[in-house]
Design brief:
Distance between the termini: 34 Å
Radius of gyration: 53 Å
Shape: rod-shaped
Number of strands: 10
Strand content: 15-25%
Helix content: 55-70%
């Protein structure tokens, strides 16, 4: 089985500028997942982070590495194999502390794993112990004497070339144990990222499914309220038709007033004509009194008509106010209805997207 993730955190990744060795260069545009991986078959610990299809961190943990917290939310470590320094910026101080503690634990585990690996390698290759301590007896631990230039010219040859070869082989084996295929690392990191994304999608889907029934109930309530508002609008529109009767009554009163004014003018003209024709003062006086009586009657009727006109105007003004209030209420209801319709459209779109998913 390949490497398995043992710890993950989200952070912004940086690398030291190779030119200046002082400035930080961002390795990712946004926060990415940074994970500790452990390969049990090779006893190797790594820090891996993948941005898109590219591994932006591939650092093998060694006992010599040290993770340093340079601020409350930033830490760094040097990787001599990659010939760079990695920096991580976390969103909280707690995340930085957790990563630092995990780094310390992995570093200690890497040290123990290296010691065990060296012990197993030395047991499997006894020739690594050819260098005997000088304080032990030469008779028991010295390697055989080799004749190089002829008889009598004996030299104690401790096989320096063999030590060099064994050391080189040991380093090669360590390198093989500590370095893996980049393709395998990318696949393992991508698999971990996909598993994490899949878990989040499953949780979101479950939450969405649990909310479907609630959304349906809310949709039914919106539809019921929409029908009620439509009925209310229809009632208000029906009520707006009544003030027309007030307008008709005013027109009739205006016509009646005009007719009375015309009749009064005609009577005045008649009085004037009579006054011009009559020569008898008595008769003229009687006619004048009668005309004055008729004039008073006409004035009384005119006053009554004016009262009726004023009452009609008040009724008309009241009707106009009621109509304006009704129009305001209609506009308010229409606005509420428009908002509800927009909410219904948004809810239907959300349901459509959920069904598509």
């Amino acid at each position: 089985m390949g490497e398995q993730p043992i710890f993950s955190a989200r952070a912004h990744v940086f690398q030291i500028d190779p030119a200046t060795k002082r400035n930080w260069l961002p390795a990712s545009k946004h926060a990415v997942t940074v994970s500790f991986f452990y390969d049990a078959s090779r006893s190797v610990y790594r820090i891996i982070s993948v941005g898109g299809t590219k591994a932006i961190i591939n650092s093998t943990i060694t006992p010599n590495m040290t993770f340093t917290k340079t601020s409350q939310k930033f830490g760094q470590w040097a990787d001599s194999r990659a010939n760079t320094v990695y920096g991580l910026g976390f969103s909280t101080e707690q995340q930085l502390q957790q990563f630092a503690e995990q780094f310390k634990e992995v570093k200690e585990a890497a040290r123990l794993a290296r010691e065990k690996s060296q012990e197993r390698f030395e047991l499997a290759n006894p020739a690594l112990n050819i260098a005997a301590p000088q304080e032990l007896s030469e008779e028991r631990h010295s390697p055989p004497l080799l004749t190089v230039n002829g008889p009598g010219e004996e030299k104690l040859f401790r096989s320096k070339s063999a030590e060099v070869e064994l050391t080189a082989e040991k380093e090669r084996v360590k390198k093989m144990l500590s370095e893996g295929s980049m393709c395998e690392i990318n696949l393992e990191a991508e698999l971990f990222t996909l598993q994490d994304s899949n878990a989040k999608l499953v949780a979101a889907l479950q939450e969405a499914n649990s909310s479907v029934e609630q959304w349906k109930k809310q949709l039914a309530e919106y539809e019921e309220e929409t029908d009620r508002l439509r009925d209310q609008v229809a009632d208000l529109e029906a009520q707006l038709g009544h003030p027309a009767a007030g307008q008709t009554g005013r027109e009739e009163l205006s016509r009646s007033l005009e007719e009375l004014e015309a009749l009064l003018s005609a009577k005045d003209q008649e009085i004037h004509n009579l006054q011009s024709k009559k020569t008898d003062v008595g008769e003229l006086e009687k006619e004048r009194e009668a005309a004055m009586q008729r004039l008073q009657d006409l004035e009384r009727r005119n006053s009554e008509l004016e009262d009726r006109v004023q009452s009609a105007e008040k009724t008309l003004a009241s009707s106009r106010d009621e109509r304006e209030q009704a129009e305001v209420e209609v506009r308010r209801v229409i606005e509420v209805l428009d908002v509800k319709i927009c909410d219904l459209k948004d809810l239907r779109q959300s349901l459509a997207k959920l069904v598509d998913k």
